[in-house]
Amino acid sequence: KAGVTQTPRYLIKTRGQQVTLSCSPISGHRSVSWYQQTPGQGLQFLFEYFSETQRNKGNFPGRFSGRQFSNSRSEMNVSTLELGDSALYLCASSLGGVTGELFFGEGSRLTVL
Amino acid sequence: QKEVEQDPGPLSVPEGAIVSLNCTYSNSAFQYFMWYRQYSRKGPELLMYTYSSGNKEDGRFTAQVDKSSKYISLFIRDSQPSDSATYLCAHPNTGNQFYFGTGTSLTVIP
Questions:
Q1: Between chains, do A106 and B42 touch, taking CB under 8 Å as contact?
Q2: pLDDT in tens, A63-88
Q3: Cα distance from A47 to chain B (closest Cα, Å)?
Q4: Closest chain A residue to B30 measured between Cα atoms?
Q5: CB burial string B11-27: b at 16+ within 10 A, e below
Q6: What is the pLDDT of residues B50-95, one digit of tens each?
Q7: B99 contacts in A (CB within 8 Å)?
Q8: Residue A33 in contact with residue A72, Cβ under 8 Å?
Q9: Which residue out of A6, A59, A102, A109 would a mutagenesis test of the B interface target, given it has the greatest number of B Cβ atoms within 10 Å?
Q10: Taking CB atoms and an 8 Å limit, are A42 and B49 in contact across chains?
């Protein structure tokens, strides 16, 4: 069974640009969550989508957005990039239960110059 | 105060040592806890989960929850170089939102 696939794995952008990251969940998983990981803050929850609906949202500015498609694939977008957005962005899929295990991808490492 | 706090380390031990990794949590209503392991350049993977108080053992790993002190621990017996990774404690919130500790980096020296 294929795992969670994230693309691109690495990318470099400059301040003010925007970026779109993609996530393909494990087949059959309807929940996709996004996390930002930085050395100082650890993993911080961005948002979760379940059956194309945003079910929960973390405490991030509106520059961070996402969506989920009918095939459960998800994208997240960051507009007007800032230096502080440099991080590893992790996507996780699950069956969607309350305490369901999260299956993470390898992440997309974003560097903002 | 963060919902889950974790000593970031780093922690370096010789092979065969017993390792203790610890977290504290703020909300006494939390009952379900998880430990994730993250190897370098990889995403986290679930190592163990435990519910409420007490111990849970899985091979060389033991997860322990002390609700009276709001303390979560992971013990690794007979540590191996392959255990070198970052260990993250976590608690699920609503809607599949998880609170994670910042992670403890562990290196096991052969």
A1: yes
A2: 999 999 999 999 999 999 999 999 99
A3: 8
A4: A99
A5: bebeeeeebebbbbbee
A6: 887 788 999 999 999 988 888 999 999 999 999 999 999 998 887 6
A7: 45
A8: no
A9: A102
A10: no
